[in-house]
Amino acid sequence: MKKILALFAASCTVAGALWSAPAAAQFAKPEDAVKYRQSAFTLIGSHFGRMAPVVKGDAPHDPAQIKANVQVLQTLAGLPWAAFGAGTEGGGAKAEIWRDEAGFRKAQQRFNDSVAKLAVAADGNDLGQLRAAFGDVGASCKACHDSYRQRR
Ligand code: HEC
User: Fold this and answer.
1) Where in the chain are the domains?
2) Mean pLDDT of the chain
């Protein structure tokens, strides 16, 4: 029990650090913020997309590998948002983000909640559950992109 509590405390500290680090992030120029968030999304896209073959049944399901990858995704999922500060309009971001901050925050919340559920699914070995949680995360990416990312 003690060990579990210690583990829990440790993971809370890590989560706290994850939230406060990007919030304190400073960018010398608006372009630096744009580059930062695009880089974070590129990594998110990579770590999300690489699970697609498993979810589709085209690659064998290795639960340990999925779990490790989802842990990376959870870390990445907290990163882009601090780089959408005032004055950082541009890149592929729609101006809507700065006009509708509450809506944008809600879209982040939906994403972060669905990534948390994916992490729970990844703790189990059930491919069906993983597939459903993966689909929900994908839907949350798309929902935000539909409203807040420019079509190219
Ligand atoms: C809450 C909103 C939101 C969520 C959730 C979100 N994105 Fe995005 N995404 C954006 C915005 C806004 C941009 C454009 C950023 C820019 O160019 O400044 C973007 C850009 C991207 C890019 C292009 C990065 C580049 O180099 O230009 C990729 C890839 C991407 N997102 C993948 C994903 C994936 C995959 C998910 C889900 C697993 C996801 N995003 C979830 C808002 C979101």
Assistant:
1) 2-148
2) 89
The CATH number fitting domain 2-148, selected from 2.10.109.10, 3.40.250.10, 3.40.30.10, 1.20.120.10: 1.20.120.10
Longest pairwise C-alpha distance within the chain: 53
Nearest CA to ligand 1 atom 35: 45
- Residue 18 — very low, low, confident or very high, per pLDDT cuts 50/70/90? very low
Give whole-number Cα distances, 28 to 39, 72, 111, in Å: 16, 27, 28
CA 7 – ligand 1 centroid, Å: 32
